[in-house]
Amino acid sequence: MPTLICDCNKTMPLDPQALGRALDENLTLHSTLCRREAGAFQQAVKSGDDVVVACTQEKRLFGELGTQTEGAVSPIRFVNIRETGGWSRDARGAMPKLAALLAAAKLPEPEPVPTVTYKSAGRLLVIGPLAEAERFAAVVGDSLDVTIFSRGGAGAQERRFPVVGGKIVKLAGWLGAFQLEWSQDNAIDLDLCTRCNACVAACPEGAIGLDYQVDLLACTSHRDCVKACSVAGAIDFAREPVAHSESYDLVLDLRQQPGFAQHAPPQGYFHLPAADVSGPTALQTVLRLRELVGEFEKPKFFTYKQKLCAHSRNEKTGCNACIEICSAEAIASDKHRQQIKVNPNLCVGCGACTMVCPTGALGYAYPKAAEQGTKIRTLVSTYERAGGAAPILLLHSQERGQALVEELGRSARTGKAQGVPANVIPLAVWHTASTGIDLWLSAVAQGTAHVAVLATHEEAPQYLEGLRAQMDVAQAILAALGYAGSHLSLLQSSAPADLDQQLQALAKRRGAVPAVRGRFGVAADKRTTLDLALDHLVEHGPAKPEAIALPAAAPFGNILVDKDKCTLCLSCVSACPASALQDNPNAPQLRLVEKNCVQCGLCATTCPENAITLQPRLLLTPERKLPRVLNEAKPYGCIRCSKPFGTLKGIELMLGKLAGHSMFQGAALERLKMCADCRVIDIYSAQDEARISDL
Prior knowledge:
- The protein is α/β, with parallel strands linked by helices.
- Helices cover 30% and strands 21% of the residues.
- The strands form 11 sheets. It has a 5-stranded parallel β-sheet with strand order 8-7-6-12-13, with helices on one face.
- The model has no long low-confidence stretch (mean pLDDT 91).
């Protein structure tokens, strides 16, 4: 796979020999690859191998040049080494980082995944004041089928677009499948209204505006408007509210308060409040609306394994983390089926649900965790092979996060900033909430001195809370194992100057890492990856504690059982989704495999005696992987055949509760002390029992 590097008119101090050694490749340094030296690019794309071009600024130009080159068959990959380090103040020391970025660009593309399809015929609903709604409708009406939902204001005399009005009951859906439900509760039927304005002129209170709706607070029931509209018959104050429902593909909401309260509204919905109707946002919205006609696809970002889900068992709720953190309201509870439901049409691919999922029931599908892990391992190993020390990984989003890093690089080139430090490796991810404790700890085990997550205004507040909580857990583990320093941080920045200051401080945060680098791969299963990372960190950690106390958000922990309350009914065993709680088929025992416990709380919620308490911690002794007895009791033997069929405490508790009941007196109470077989035998052999055959 040939690599083409360019110092962009000698503005970057690139060392082709050092980069080539790290990549096991002979590199030629270019200065004007996109201009005078374009022939080298044309020659490379004829090879048939994937070609890596270390320039993203001229991506379009290179693409066009490739299509115009006879015999060009090579796929082209682009990587930015200029703004990410080549233009920084310490660019001469950034060769290990640049080598790492080039090596990561050579990795295979993410494997294809199932897609979600949207179909839009261009049916646009505009909600808002009539004049503004008509103005936007006029701009897009040539390419979209527009319907206006009037919310007051004065409209044009000419009826160019259908107008409906009333009280909105419900607005739901997504691109190509929005559903509007409203109640027509106004006296004027807009379908029958001819806009002759006779009612407006006749109303003595001025209660009727040019939106042709009656202000009932101003109306004093003269009903002059009804007489004026006698021919058209559009006004009827006695009409009962009529329920309507209609489907649309797109929604433009001009109201001050949006119709969707969630942080990430559905695709195809655009909110443009009054303050933005004349600004650049309005133009961008119009352009995006015009583009959303046709058939569109996006990856199905998540995978779901119900068997692992700790959300619900026996109609009891345990883990609710994914529902609470989802900013698109795409996840809902389905207690009847003992699972969650994820709407792929509403999912925006943030991955926050996979970050907080303790079991790995929700997994991030595009790119997969294993693919992300391979990229991180490639970055870190190449960086160290090229002579770098203490690499810092900067995770940022592919949109605003990446733009912010590039803005910082340009500021550094003009001397207004220092740029991305030489030991800080930027890594673009689909969304900053899509990585979690499994990838972070794996990165540290493989030699990453610090992992920073860059948040901009794109992130929902609950994402930041989730990231901090997960980082607290990971940092507590690393600190207890004796790895000195800070290993995780959440950066919040919206301007290049702020990011520059934060990155300069970040470059000095060098947490300790294992002396022996982890060479394991990130697995598809989250818990497997966590076990691999923890085993490596524990094995090479300076400290060897038996257990580590963790914050409440930890996916590891112990179960404490109040033996005075517990009757060993074992309802907690059937509720446990992770097989952490187990019974013993040979004795009345409740056992725990602490390695499997995810602290979902289903056992505590299910326990009828409230005998269970969760204890977040990480046990590091070999007992963590072995069954440990939490409670045991003497078996209770049948009074007829002596076969054990329950626990002594459980049977005694049952006898105590039922002793005063009228149905359990005398022989009936004694039968409670028998096993199921002997109970039936005793009933049929008793002489004083009534039988159905005797009736």
